[in-house]
């Protein structure tokens, strides 16, 4: 028995797949976690790109807990949904694209955090945002909205 | 129910049924709109409740245009999705409860908007939302989570 088949046969996989409420509950949590992540990360990225310059750039850090809560909710609910039908999901190219986009989004967020927050807190908060930093913020929006789109399309693609 | 049958047979509904990528496109659009709408509202409500205090309250309330864009995207995409399956969605309990929560969330947003305007925004400038406004923000979070939840549940009834 392969890993994916084993995953589906675990108590979690069976519970999510067969219980009346399991799948919709995790799906709902996944949707709310998505709104938390896109809302908070979206605003940080837009701020880096120059939107609402009156927001102190360094202080947008205070939005990160919301992004982390959303990410954690979605890692847990996403894993639960995946285990319910692991073979099916793994076969879908949109699922794989979504995973790649999430990894890229994560690397990107780490890079952005290093640039914006560490540099700014090092004593130059008034420094204009470098073009390369803006590119990172722009790509972040592309990756996370891309993950939303790919995720939604899993149900419609082979 | 006649209007539901009629809706489902309009050329729009037929187009959504015939063009294979149209339904997934509207559904995906509905999720992007949801992210802007609920993501934006959440930021405003949480800020009113004291989250991310270093960010000026006035600027955060200034995120409302995003919320409106998300709302308009979702009214449009939601209408398209509804027309496609009107006879199925119309009698759906989860859909009916979702619409009820939408009305409640809308009235609640109106109360928020009025309290921003009526007070001449004095509490906005002073960053001291009155308890009434904090109550409205809490209800807003609750109503929108209910809208998302009942919307998701439509597929399972």
Question: Which terms would index this structure?
Answer:
A: 158 residues, mainly alpha, B: 157 residues, 9 helices, 80% helix
Architecture overview:
The complex is a heterodimer of chains A (158) and B (157). Chain A is mostly helical and 158 residues long. Chain A has one domain (3-156). Chain A is 77% helix and 0% strand. Chain A is built from 7 helices and no strands. In chain A, helix 2 (11-18) packs across helix 4 and helix 6 runs antiparallel to helix 7 (131-153). Chain A is elongated and about 55 Å long. Chain A starts with a helix and ends in a 5-residue tail after the last helix. Chain B is mainly α. Chain B has one domain. In chain B, 80% of the residues lie in helices and 0% in strands. Chain B contains 9 helices and no strands. Chain B has helices at residues 2-8, 11-18, 22-48, 57-61, 64-84, 86-89, 93-118, 122-125, 131-153. In chain B, helix 2 crosses helix 5, helix 3 runs antiparallel to helix 5 (64-84) and helix 7 runs antiparallel to helix 9. The longest helix of chain B is centred in the first third of the chain and has 27 residues, at 22-48.
């Amino acid at each position: 028995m392969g890993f994916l088949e084993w995953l589906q046969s675990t108590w979690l996989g069976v519970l999510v797949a067969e219980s009346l409420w399991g799948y919709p509950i995790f799906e709902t949590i996944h949707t709310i976690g998505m709104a938390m992540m896109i809302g908070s990360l979206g605003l940080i990225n837009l701020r880096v790109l120059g939107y609402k310059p009156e927001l102190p750039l360094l202080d947008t850090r205070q939005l990160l807990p919301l992004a982390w809560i959303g990410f954690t909710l979605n890692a847990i609910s996403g894993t639960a949904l995946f285990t319910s039908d692991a073979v099916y999901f793994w076969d879908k190219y949109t699922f794989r694209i979504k995973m790649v986009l999430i990894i890229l989004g994560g690397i990107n967020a780490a890079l952005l955090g290093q640039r914006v927050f560490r540099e700014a807190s090092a004593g130059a908060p008034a420094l204009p945002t470098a073009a390369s930093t803006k590119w990172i913020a722009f790509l972040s929006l592309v990756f996370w909205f891309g993950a939303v789109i790919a995720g939604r399309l899993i149900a419609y693609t082979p | 129910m006649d209007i539901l049958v009629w809706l489902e047979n309009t050329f729009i509904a037929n187009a959504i049924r015939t063009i294979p990528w149209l339904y997934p496109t509207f559904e995906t659009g509905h999720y992007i709109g949801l992210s802007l709408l609920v993501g934006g509202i959440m930021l405003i409500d949480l800020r009113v409740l004291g989250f991310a205090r270093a960010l000026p309250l006035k600027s955060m309330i200034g995120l409302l245009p995003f919320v409106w864009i998300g709302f308009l995207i979702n009214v449009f995409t939601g209408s398209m999705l509804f027309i496609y399956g009107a006879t199925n969605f119309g009698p759906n309990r989860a859909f009916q409860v979702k619409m009820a929560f939408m009305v409640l969330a809308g009235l609640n947003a109106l109360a928020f908007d009025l309290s921003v305007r009526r007070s001449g925004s004095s509490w906005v400038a002073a960053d001291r939302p009155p308890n009434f406004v904090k109550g409205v923000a809490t209800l807003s979070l609750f109503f929108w989570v209910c809208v998302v939840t009942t919307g998701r549940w439509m597929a399972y009834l």
